[in-house]
Amino acid sequence: MDKTANEQLVRQIDLLEVAVLRAHQFPTYGQEFVSPHLTIAINLNGIGHAFYDHKEVYFRKNEIATILPNHLMQPIESSDDYEVILIVISNIMNNEVKKRMQRYNHDMYHINPSFMLDDSQLEKLLAVVNLIDTISKMSIEQMQYRHNALLNTIEVFLDMLHSFRQLPTLQSNITKGQDLFNRFCDLLASNYNKEHELSFYADKLYMTPKYFSQIIKETTGISASKWIENYIITQAQQLLLNRHDLNIQSICFLLGFKEQAAFSRFFTHSVGISPKKYRQQGGE
């Protein structure tokens, strides 16, 4: 999928509610990108190599991965025979599903975004995916209760996904530092455009800022403050390059800055050039 097609898809998903896509490559390579939507990927063939929230991952045949909204992805490469199905779920639909499926802890997917399916599990899931695809392509005129049908079918799909995944086993294999970092990333994905201070995240995790920063640095090699900065910068870069309908002041407000001057100083200090120049140069 090229950059323009990916940009158009992101803007249309909320109207579509859900989209089922088939692809043979990642949307971008070597650059971080963030999708605002829940994406579930099923690898039919080949192998993909990427970083998810800066953790290296390999995506293999018969593997299924859940990519949570607003989390960082950096595709590196994929094999020539790579083939994947993507189920992209809008924010409105995702929130409705989460309310109906409160029996599950969706954030646990961050512990390990992917796991392997056996052939029988893959066949069952693909049958439901095909039904989701069929319903999603129908209009309200063709199917009066399209939204409810989609909602029910996605819930069935996620129910099956939960039953195939052994979350307790995954939980027991991670350290306290890794668990803290996972929860920090989830908080960051939800609050980056409102909260920029380290103290906010430390407080939400019931820790002092000093101890919180120490654990994150020991676990990842990068300070918590730098993680916050990198996340905001990645979001800013995507908005500058992809949302030409927004001026820099609008982007500044979307990212939680009260003044454009403060945003410009923040961006220039991190990237080395001003937001305006970055947009003019196309990110190069």
The number of domains: 2
Percent of residues in helical segments? 40-55%
- Please outline the major beta sheet: 5 strands, antiparallel
Beta strand count:
9
Strand content: 15-25%
- Rounded Rg: 20 Å
Distance between the termini: 20 Å
Question: Judging from the principal axes of the Cα atoms, what is the shape?
Answer: globular
Please state the average pLDDT score.
Answer: 85
Plain-language structure description:
The protein has about 280 residues and is α+β, with helices and mostly antiparallel strands. The chain folds into two domains: about 170 residues, Sandwich (Jelly Rolls); about 100 residues, Orthogonal Bundle (Arc Repressor Mutant, subunit A), CATH 1.10.10.60. Helices cover about 50% and strands about 20% of the residues. The protein has twelve helices and nine strands. Strands 1-8-3-6-9 form a five-stranded antiparallel beta sheet, with helices on both faces. A four-stranded antiparallel beta sheet has the order 2-7-4-5. A hairpin with a 2-residue loop joins strand 4 and strand 5. Helix 3 runs antiparallel to helix 4 and helix 6 crosses helix 8. The radius of gyration is 20 Å and the shape is globular. About 0% of the residues have low confidence.
SSE blueprint and pairings:
Layout (H helix, E strand, L loop, with lengths): L2 H14 L1 E6 L9 E2 L3 E8 L1 E6 L2 E6 L2 E5 L4 E7 L4 E7 L1 H10 L13 E3 L2 H18 L9 H19 L2 H6 L3 H16 L6 H7 L4 H12 L3 H19 L5 H7 L5 H12 L3 H6 L4
Helix pairs in contact: 3-4, 6-8, 7-8
